[in-house]
Amino acid sequence: MEYNTSKTHLEMPEYGRIIQQLVERCKELEDRDERNEMAVAIVDFMGQRNPQLRDESNYKHKLWDHLFILSKYDLDVDSPYHIPTQEELKVKPKRMEYPKLQGDFKFYGKSILQLIDKAIELEAGDEKDALIQVIANNMKKSYNVYNKEHVQDEVIFRHLKDLSENRLDLTILDSLEKSKIYYATNRTNKSNPRNNPKTQNTRKNFQNNKNRK
Fold this sequence. Notes:
Layout (H helix, E strand, L loop, with lengths): L15 H13 L3 H18 L9 H12 L15 H4 L20 H12 L4 H22 L5 H11 L16 H12 L5 H16 L1
Helix pairs in contact: 1-2, 2-3, 5-6, 6-7
Protein name: DUF4290 domain-containing protein
Pfam families: DUF4290
């Protein structure tokens, strides 16, 4: 009885020993056209053995890369893609940075980060101050909606400093209610009757009574 441990090492066990043997046979063919034809057939067979790869947009490219891995990068055929080298595939991917929006920050969203980056780029002045206050107000709204509870402004100020890496600071304000942006927004909503639910209901009732007549 022959044990697997005594057999040839499988470069990619998920493809099985049959495909490994086919690749070895392909390498032995002297005629290049025959090797090319067999390589294409092997790739198709590999796709049938691993149908889950078909869900990926570049699955064909991946199968050809696997073919060269199975051949130990020693297969002279015409590939429709760049032929990888052992050094290329062994390069470690770049370390990914942890996202800033974690824990207390995850509900603010990427748009807040983009606005913060924009505010950091602006030179000191009224435009930058106004944008910072807009950001803080939107952060407060997001916090209240997500957590379903009122948040103190000092918490928003602290989060803003953390997300901007201490480059945006609103601690000079006692609260967001004292910012010009806050007052301008609320004053607009109150002065515009279309934004008032009571006014909208009154208009609706008036229109209904008018239609009855």
